[in-house]
Amino acid sequence: MYDTVLLPTDGSESAETVVEHARDVAVRRGADVHVLYVVDDRAFLTMDDDRVPEVTDQLQAEGERATSEVAAAFEREDLDVTTELRQGDPADEILAAAADRDADLVVMGSHGADPTRNLLGSVSQEVVTRSSVPVLTVNVADQ
Asked: What is the C-alpha to C-alpha distance for residues 16 and 8, in angstroms, rounded to an integer?
C-alpha cells in the first residue's frame, strides 16, 4: 500500500516527531523514503536583489544539513532513502515531488488550525487539500 513515502522537512527540532511517524510507516511497510527540503523563494520578494544569492546559499546549506540528518535516521533502519532540495512555493513543490516520485503517502508536520502561527501550518493545509495521495499530518505545535 505504501511503497514510497515523501517526507518534507523544514529542518526544525520539531521535525523529529514527524520523522518518527514516517519511520514507523516505512519500517512497517518496507517503504522507500524521499526526504525533501524546499527553499521558499516567496521570501525573496521583499529582499534586495543583491542579497538573494547569499540567502539562497544559506537556505540551501540548511536544506542539505536537514535532509542529510533526516536521511540518516532511515539509513540506520536499512531503508532506501533519497534526498532532494527544491526551490519555490513549498506546497507546490511538495505536491510536485509527490507526483515526480510516485509517492503513496506524504508525512509532514502541521502547527494546527491557526495558519498565523507558522507558515508550515498553511503549507500542510494546502498539501492536504490538493494532494491526490494520503497525507499524514503530525501536530508539532507544542514541540
From this structure: 12
Long-range contacts of 46-55 (CB under 8 A, 24+ apart): none
pLDDT digits (tens, 9 = 90+) for 85-100: 999 999 999 999 999 9
Residue 2 has which C-alpha cell? Answer: 505504501
Give the Cα separation of 59 and 62 in Å (integer). Answer: 5
Which phi and psi (to 5°) does residue 132 adopt?
-95, -5
- Which CA distances in Å does 29 have to 56, 109, 130, 139? 36, 20, 25, 22
**What is the pTM assigned to this prediction?**
0.88
| β-sheet bridge partners, residue 36 | 8, 84
- Reduced to 3 states, what is the DSSP secondary structure of residue 130? helix
Q: Which of 127, 107, 88, 121 is nearest to 17 (CA)?
A: 107
Type and span of the H or E element at 55: helix 52-75
Could you read off the pLDDT of 11-27 as tens digits, one per residue?
888 889 999 999 999 99
Sketch out the chain's domains with CATH numbers.
4-139 (3.40.50.620)
